[in-house]
Amino acid sequence: MTGGAGIEYTGVRDLRGPLLFVEGVSGVGWDEFATIALDSGGRRHGLVLEVDRDVAVVQVLQGTSGMNRSGTRVVFSGTPLRIPVGTGWLGRVCDGRGEPADGGPPVLGGSYADVGGAPINPVRREPPNEAVLTGVTAVDVLTTLVRGQKLPVFSAAGLPHLELAVQIAAQATCAGEPFAVVFAGMGLTHTDAAFVRDGLAARSAARELVLFLNTADDPVIERLLTPRLALTVAEHLAFAVGRHVLVVMTDMTAYSEALREVSAARGEIPARRAYPGYLYSDLASLYERCGRIRGRPGSVTVLPVLTMPAGDITHPVPDLTGYITEGQIVLSGDVQAAGTYPPVDPLASLSRLMRKGTGAGRTRADHPAVAAQLIAALARSRQVRELADLIGRSALSPTDLRHLDLEDVFRHRFLEQGTTEDRSLGDSLDRAWEVLLTLQRSQLGMLPADLLDAHASPRETAR
Amino acid sequence: MIAGSDGLDPVRAALLRAARASADAMRERARADADDTLRSARAAAEEVLARARDLGGSDGAAGAARVRVRALQDAWAVELAARAEVYAALRAAIRAGVRRALEEDTSARVRLAGVARDLLGPGAAVTPLADGGVTAGVPGRRVDLSADALADRALDRLGVRAESLWRPE
Questions:
Q1: Of the residues A306, A417, A432, B37, which has the fewest C-beta atoms closer than 10 A?
Q2: Would residue B60 count as lying in a domain?
Q3: What is the ipTM of this complex?
């Protein structure tokens, strides 16, 4: 963190929730970073939320509990929060404020970057067109993640979104190009934090991982900083160092709740479900930091994970996230109840940029057609299952029955996967073909004849 | 007793032949069955063995990978702890150096008092410290120019150059 010789302000007028009001200040600006020294000898950090004449409102990242009005000294840095950036972050485990949690020295860097980030010039944005492969069949084939994309995972309480996030973070690759993962955990329990550390141990040992862990018992305010630190580190690794960086942020609902708490403490007028009216623009200020820049190597791909309270997709957090991001991977309680991992609902999931990142020269020539045909067949299967519930299985046509079989084969041969099972794209696509060939050739109208000839068994071809 | 031949001999011989043929056939079938059973048992055993070998191999490989990752992690943790130790030693050395420099340079305290008054105004109350530095204050504002504070700021400004402690140029 930056900080120079500065004046310590001792006129603390009030402490309210996470906010500290200090009077007698001069030359202090909005969003300035502050260091707060306690009379007990401890140090905390904060950001200036507001300045009115000589009174500054400081949001204390660790909260104000245990602080006294007398004996508290505040130093303003003169700049917004800046952190050192560089490859020194790789392999490090830090808390939600970027302080080392692995017993190492402070993370040092050759340069400093503003954690607020600088918006990418829209004219210089390069459209995403290459895939990030996750080794998870359902994601790679049906909702392919593309470099520079923002693709959220919509989950609900009790679903294994953390397992999926860790699996993707552990397995993701970029066709052998320099790659790194920045994992920002927010509001995690200590068990979850340990699970993340263990699950990503190999990646960390390979110095391809930066881990920020804000646990549930850390001050809620720190959560506002965690994704910004992660993105700042990622941007430098991508656009200055030249790596393709995947930023996994979980759980964005915990982040939004922190935003709501600070907003309430500031006395702002609440909007939907008491979230602040600027929730949309705040989320956009994070998600929009992904992308690729013309003339620069590397890319930042963002995979936010969010839980939908009570599974409600119209809740402000998933709703506003959906407006900003380019598709979603939806986890389903029904699929989970059937004992399938990962419980991805293929018909509710979508990657809007997938077409740009798949196909010949990118993944495999048959990929887009296979994915489209599989989704179409699964949609028909769902209709048939609903029909079977109404009129009974015995009344279904042989084609309908094949669609029911397809759903079973899809679940067992395609969707179901171990939490540490890393499947190649070739294996995943072959499994997709296996599922599709449950149907007769006449039902596979979205697949070109040459592809069908190449993949169908001789028996199927003769038919 | 002389065995006499009677008209049943051919029948007896035919029955015996048939019984022997049947017994031979049954023996052949039993042998074939036994061979089949043996063959399939051997094949099943081979399969179980191969599967066990595969499972054992993958378990072993996974175990070895875990051990390897754990070893790498442990080595990295030791390296980080050593880096933290040497960084703390650098901080201590810088603090000691600044204290020594302030002790040796008698005019330093006067200059520091001047800096404090520049920041807080001419009315600031300046307090000399035992470490050679000063603190100064006016109501609501304070400046810390102690030796340790000066040393810590210098170390912060050093930034990535401190990595030369563990990363030879």
A1: B37
A2: yes
A3: 0.80
The model's confidence at residue B3, banded by pLDDT at 50, 70 and 90, is low
Flag whether residue A270 sits within 8 Å of chain B, measured between CB atoms.
Answer: no
Task: Tell how many helices (H) and how many strands (E) occur in chain B.
Answer: 3, 3
Nearest-by-CA chain A residue for B72: A205
Query: The domain A83-355: what is its CATH number?
Result: 3.40.50.12240
Cis, bond preceding A343 (omega within 30 deg of 0): no
User: Does the residue B2 lie in any domain?
Assistant: no
Domain range enclosing B156: 10-165
Q: How far is B145 from chain A (nearest CA, A)?
A: 8
Taking every pair of Cα atoms in chain B, the longest distance, rounded to a whole number of angstroms, is 155
Structure tokens at B21: 């043929």
Is it the case that residue A458 has pLDDT exceeding 60?
Answer: no
Find which of B55, B83, B155, B161 to mutate to test the A interface (most A CBs within 10 Å of its CB). Answer: B83
- The third-level CATH classification (topology) of the domain covering A8-80 is Elongation Factor Tu (Ef-tu); domain 3 (2.40.30)
Contact between B73 and A205 using a beta-carbon 8 Å cutoff:
yes
Q: Where are the domains of chain A?
A: 8-80, 83-355, 367-462
Mean pLDDT of A298-320: 93
Q: Are B83 and B91 in contact (CB under 8 A)?
A: no
> Is residue A180 within 8 Å of residue A90, measured between CB atoms?
yes
Spell out which residues of chain B touch residue A7, defining contact as CB-CB under 8 Å. Answer: 119-120, 141-143
Which pLDDT belongs to residue B1? Answer: 45
Nearest CA in chain A to B163: A108
Could you tell me if A339 and A333 are in contact, meaning their C-beta atoms sit under 8 angstroms apart? no
In tens, the pLDDT along A209-248 reads: 999 999 999 888 789 999 999 999 999 999 999 999 999 9
Name the residue of chain B whose CA is nearest to A26's CA.
B141
State the total domains in chain B.
1
